[in-house]
TrEMBL record:
The keyword Nucleotide-binding applies. Residues 4-236 form the ABC transporter domain. The keyword Endoplasmic reticulum does not apply. GO terms for molecular function: ATP binding; ATP hydrolysis activity. This is ABC transporter ATP-binding protein. Transmembrane segments: none annotated. Signal peptide: none annotated. Keywords: ATP-binding, Nucleotide-binding, Translocase, Transport. It comes from Janibacter limosus. It comes from the Bacteria.
Amino acid sequence: MSHLSSRGLAAAVGGHTIVSGVDLDVPRGSMLALVGRNGSGKSTLVRALVGLRPPAAGTVAIDGVDLRTLTPRQRATRVAYVPQEDGPPEDLLVGEMVAMGRIPHRPPWAVDAKGEAPLVMEALELVGMADKVDRPCQHLSGGERRRVLLARGIAQGADLLVLDEPTNHLDVHHQIQLLETLRALGCTVIAAVHDLQLAAAHFDAVAVLHAGAVHAVGQPADVLTPATVHDVFDVPATQLTDPATGRVHLVLGPGAPVPAPRKVPA
Ligand SMILES: Nc1ncnc2c1ncn2[C@@H]1O[C@H](COP(=O)(O)OP(=O)(O)OP(=O)(O)O)[C@@H](O)[C@H]1O
């Protein structure tokens, strides 16, 4: 059975259907990238997949259980959603922000619970932010804030993480480190990403959103073909496979040969 599956899922905003007919099967422990052009509906779909937006049609199930049958607290122990941005209360410290991930596990009305501190520190260590546990969130850079949001998602303890553009604002070192951390966690991961090269090299499967539907879904090598990249993104692409790792790499852009330097007349 898939960890997360959707059937005929449609998500609408303000009465407008943004994506429809979405059938996904995400195996436990695998990583799925959602890619597509700006406005293709990645964030809208992500919110529908975690139950923040009721489906306009169709269903989403986690371990075969329809999301609509779960209470918000039950949902939050099964799936952690990491948004693109989250305006935290101005005076929240990093550690307090991450501890918010533990709210679904606290007794009702509890402000905090015993035993949370080690989990918070563990999550911060995983994203390389443990040394900033006592820093106010408003003093963080954009990339540091992203990593703290991820730590909050990890601290939530769900084995399904759904992330909206987790690599935004991160330098290349932290982009790769974050994706390797997600892989090492062993969780099921669904992430909206813009970077096709990261999607190709680090994910088990890719779903391409285009024109209000899933245009293609499957293994990166089968989906991120030059034809699909051209049709959807209007960009030339070449697909290469690293013989050592088997990972797919994309070379994007015209790939025109570098012109020879002009000879300057003497
Ligand atoms: N609250 C809203 N009211 C009306 N339209 C909305 C609303 N939120 C999103 N949309 C529209 O829905 C479409 C999909 O937006 P969404 O944010 O899901 O796309 P996306 O693929 O995540 O985009 P991006 O890559 O730019 O982040 C866009 O055309 C957007 O303008």
